[in-house]
Amino acid sequence: MGNFTTFLWLFLNLLLVTRGFPADLLYDYENIGSFLNSADEVSSSEIKLKVPIVFYGQVYSSIFVNSNGLLSFQTDIPTFFNIEFPLDYPVIAPLYSNVDISKTGTISYYETSNADLIARASRNVHKAFSYSGDFLATSLFVATWSRVGYHRNGTDKLNTFQVVIISDGDDSFVEFLYPENGIQWIQGTGADSGLPDARAQAGFIGADDRFYVLHGSGTDQIKNIERWSNTDVPGQWIYRVGRIDSDANIEEPDTYNNVVDNTVPKSCEKGASQCHGFAKCIDHAEGFCCSCRELYYGNGKFCVKKDAPIRVNGKVNGEINGEKLSNLDLQSYIVMVDGRAYTAISKIPEPIAHSFQSLYTVGGLLGWVFAKPVADSVNGFQLTGGVFNQTATIIFKNTNHKVTIKQKGLGLDVYDQLRLDIELQGDIPQLLPEAKVNMDDYEEQFTLTGPGILQSSSAKSFTYNNLEGNSVTIEFSLDQSVIFDYCKYSAVPFLATCSTIATETPSASSN
Ligand SMILES: *[C@@H]1O[C@H](CO)[C@@H](O)[C@H](O)[C@H]1NC(C)=O
Ligand SMILES: *[C@@H]1O[C@H](CO)[C@@H](O)[C@H](O)[C@H]1NC(C)=O
């Protein structure tokens, strides 16, 4: 018997703006410089720089170009690590993604002190940073991904982007450039791990714990980096990365007041890019809403494929019966087609592991989020896109124990998995290890009590066998509210009655 416990629940849910781009956005890259081999997962050898690059206060005299959309210092990184930023090494990532140029595309690079290019880069720096007047670039390092395919051997969608490091040997700036129609794919087909590829990520990772990601990095919105900007040119992003104080981070331009266009557009013409890639934009009188396309479901900001299994990744914190819960992992696997969700939490402290069975309603929220929609009814994901704040109070009638649950849905992460933060506080009845819990089928009825507010109150019970073999019934009440953002321009959708039936007793197992 180990010193931790995994807990498993099993449920069956019954019902449940594009401006034109200057053609010369990119610095020269054709017929110039060195090329990476046409293969999957390749890196350059160490490239000695004539003028060093300063990055997060560190001075680097060499650099590596890696096929998966990043420049690295210290070491080459040919492998696509399917993880969310940060990585373990200092990198500059114009678009970290599972690039594969076995079939098509080129990746090239050069260092230059060409006077015209230097002048252009210095101008861009002066325009963006009011305090950079004294900066005169002496060298540029330019790397270009031109019409590159995706892992594996993907050639139907191609990406083009460029990174330019602008240095004077003492300070450095970086331009990320994404030409119009340059970002056609944001995710490879997945490695052999069974996990989908992380969505494309863009940003900077220092040699210490500091890192910085672009707006939309790792989300479906990353496709918009070619339309968005932190300058006045769509697709152009510029940052100061060099002499950064040890307590500071990468610097954005201070001269443009449209740093990332986050003014709220009023129509699809300007706003369609805010919809998910698998959503369409619908104009209403006062504004627009996003709506997932056929074969997908969600709230239009987040859409997932119908009938595809969903993974949920959560962290559980708090304190139950005086036992601290710190960063316990919650994993859930939801098979919507047959209305099942498997939820496991590890590692629950041993003293409360068995008693934890009385908290099975924690997993019930996921039952609502991914309930199988019937007729015109909608489930929690269609309403919220997985972004919500739930607060629930459970009161155990016989014993007066009380628990509050806070669950924060953070939407889909870089792998399309729903992120959940859960906090549990309070006391629950002590159940003996021998206790075999049986719970009744139950039904949850949510009522829309205000804009973006759902509430439900219910009384439930479960039974267990005590040491003497007698069946004991524990009654409890569950009051909960869910707050979510919604598109206020369209009619409020009809709400489903959703019943969640537990088909199997939760079991606690030690391993
Ligand atoms: C990808 O293309 C390369 C080069 O043509 C080939 O050797 C390899 O077998 C292909 N891989 C797959 C999975 O199709
Ligand atoms: C949830 O709560 C957080 C604060 O903890 C808040 O920033 C966020 O806007 C809330 N989300 C919704 C959808 O209301």
TrEMBL record:
Alphabetized UniProt keyword annotations: Calcium, Extracellular matrix, Glycoprotein, Secreted, Signal
Span of domain NIDO: 94-244
Classification via CDD domains: EGF (cd00053)
Any Pfam family hit: G2F
Gene3D superfamilies in UniProt: Green fluorescent protein
Principal place of residence: secreted
Cellular compartments annotated: Secreted, Extracellular space, Extracellular matrix
GO terms (BP aspect): cell-matrix adhesion
Keyword hit for Methyltransferase: no
Domain Nidogen G2 beta-barrel: 308-511
N-terminal signal peptide: 1-20
PANTHER family to which the protein is assigned, alphabetical: MUCIN 4-RELATED, NIDOGEN
Protein name per the record: NIDO domain-containing protein
Organism: Photinus pyralis (Common eastern firefly)
